[in-house]
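Bump. Still looking for Crossover junction endodeoxyribonuclease RuvC structure tokens.
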Amino acid sequence: MIRVIGIDPGLRNLGWGVIDVSGSRIAHVANGICHSEGDDLGARLLSLHGQLTRVLTAWRPQAAAVEQTFVNKDGAGTLKLGQARGIAMLVPAQFGLTVGEYAPNKVKKTVVGVGHADKGQVAHMVKMQMPGIEIAGPDAADALAIAICHAHHGGASTLAQAVVRASA
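Sorry for the wait, here they are.
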């Protein structure tokens, strides 16, 4: 079994979701949203860093995945999102984890079956794959979808197989 954290980067709300993966089986562990605090960009990034560090300390994942940023017409907005994404990649790296990166369309196609699904469809399919879970919000649902995508595309299963071989 391997524990995977998926992270949906955002400057205001950074979603996270933790799952356990054993072969083709996945199980929900926890999910939530880190809300940035502070008046300036530096304080907000520091706030996200501290909160995400506490999440990784509490749940101790063995693998991590983050959604890639797509560039849109708002260059300043894309740059700020990229800075939050830097925090989302830095914290797992501080815990010694390699971070998988997935395009939004790949995550949606993996979880929903189509690459242009909306947030409601993503949340619905996450709940279908892990019945009975309470999702903290759309950003947490997206983070769980990122973790599921990582589990299905070799990031988690390859690591789990390596751990088994090393233990033998």
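The helical segments are 41-59, 75-94, 104-111, 119-129, 138-152, 155-167.

Edit: fixed formatting.
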